[in-house]
Each structure stands twice: as C-alpha cells, then as structure tokens.
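Usage

Read records sequentially. Each one opens with the input sequence:
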Amino acid sequence: MNETAELTRTGLVEVRTLFKTYRRGPEQVHALRGVSFSLGPGEVVALFGPSGSGKSTLLNLLAGWEAPDAGSVMWLGGEVRPLAARPWRDVAILPQTLGLLEELSVRENIELPIRLGRGDGEYARRVNGFLSFLGLDALADRTPNEVSIGEQQRTALARALILGPRLLLADEPTGHQDEGWAKSVFRLLRMVAQRRTTCLIATHNQEAVRIADRTLASRDGQILPRQETG
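and closes with the structure output:
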C-alpha cells in the first residue's frame, strides 16, 4: 500500500517537513525546523513545550493563518489545501486571542458557526448543552465584556466545537481556567474526541497528559519523538 493510500485509510492530517523562519532585527529565528507528524481521527494529541518553542507558530500554519517557508499539510491522504479554506465542520480553531464578537451575546457567539453555515434546528440542543456543561447558561444573554476572561474562553471553545468539527486546533485552551474548570475543559475534549473530533492541543497544563492519546514535545522548532500516554 502506498503512502497516500495508507494515510487515507488511517489518518486525518499529515504534516510534512514544515519550516518557518522569522527575522527579528538582525537575528533569524527558526520557529520550525522540518516538523513532521500525523493526526488520526478522534485522536487527542497534547503538544507541550516552553514559550517560544514553536507551538503557536505550528498551529497558525495548520490553521492557514501563516504560510510555511517549506513543507505541506496533507488532509485525508493527498489533498494539499490550506485548512483555513475548509468549512467550520472540518476545522475549528480556539486561538489565544479568542476572537469573540463584542456586539453578540455569549449564546449568539456560540451560535455564530450555525448561522454562517445555515445550520438547522438540530443544533439548538447542542448550544444549550454546551452552555450548561461549561457553566455559561446563566450568562447566555450577556456580552463578552460582561463576563470573565475564563468564561470568554469557554464561550470560544463552545463556538469552536458547536458543529462537531473533524479537527480542533486549540492554543492553550485552559490558559484562563482555574483547576476545576481546566479539568472540565479537558473532559469535554475527551468527549468530543469519542465522537471523532481530532484535537490538537498546545498547552502547558500537565493535566492534558491524563486525557491525551499521545503527547508531542516542541523544542527549538522541532517536534521530539512521541511519548505514549497509555
């Protein structure tokens, strides 16, 4: 079986030898140095590494927000196409900047992908379910500037997951959560993975090890060998 056929059978996304270099004054910063790895359907992968190790750059490249200097991202075994060009049902992103619309309520922000995708009434129950699970039901009619940053982050997570995407790219999804809510966020990611959403999580939170199928280590622009979490 050739490489593309094997990926089609078993994988969702394959990252091949990504390079990215920035110029910082007279200095060249090698953010990514030939990064390669694959993601399988319904897999939770935790990406660890210190600040500046290339985690956010990698997610930005996968999201299509930046272009690599070299390398490619293969989707479902052979189609080279920016993930950002795909619909929300394929790829959803939870960025550190959150990107909530200030003029919309918490509920309306969560519903935004449904409206943009002309989704039907089947998603109404999902909205209510996310509001309840993430402790946002009493805040549903408030705008983002009327809730805490942790509540904003959980709103953005619900928005990212509302259509049941094939792939979630989450940059520090518990960065604004206390210990209790961080565990709830990770539990939710494990639940959506069981419904075949692949989750790539860039994080510093060691609790992610408990729910991840695999961990990757980002250091000096490289992805170190995987460590099975059991």
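Summary fields computed downstream for this record:
- The two ends are 28 Å apart (CA to CA).
- Strands lie at 13-24, 27-39, 44-48, 70-75, 79-80, 91-94, 167-171, 198-202, 214-219, 222-228.
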